[in-house]
């Protein structure tokens, strides 16, 4: 799966984690909950 540019931008934020669950890619950020994203 291609990872979207928007996810890559969020990945570089401090505290961000990239998680794959059941084929869906999530970016979760505990320190800044605004910066959440999903793909797939």
> How many separate domains?
1
Can you tell me the overall shape? globular
Largest sheet: 3 strands, antiparallel
Strand tally, please? 3
How are the strands of the largest sheet arranged? 1-2-3
Calculate Rg over CA atoms.
9 Å
Kindly estimate the percentage of residues that lie in beta strands according to DSSP.
35-45%
* Classification by helices and strands: alpha+beta
* Helical fraction: 10-25%
Topology order in helix (H) and strand (E) letters: HEEE
Distance between the termini: 8 Å
Query: Mean pLDDT score, rounded?
Result: 89
DSSP summary: helix tally: 1
Report the uncertain regions: none
Keywords: Ribonucleoprotein, Ribosomal protein
GO molecular function: structural constituent of ribosome
Family: Belongs to the bacterial ribosomal protein bL36 family.
Organism: Streptomyces echinatus
Describe how the helices and strands are arranged:
Blueprint (H helix, E strand, L loop, with lengths): L4 H7 L4 E6 L2 E6 L7 E3 L1
Antiparallel strand pairs: 1-2, 2-3
């Amino acid at each position: 799966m291609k990872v979207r540019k928007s996810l890559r931008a969020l990945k570089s934020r401090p505290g961000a984690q990239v998680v794959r669950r059941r084929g869906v890619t999530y970016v979760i950020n505990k320190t800044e909950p605004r910066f959440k994203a999903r793909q797939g």
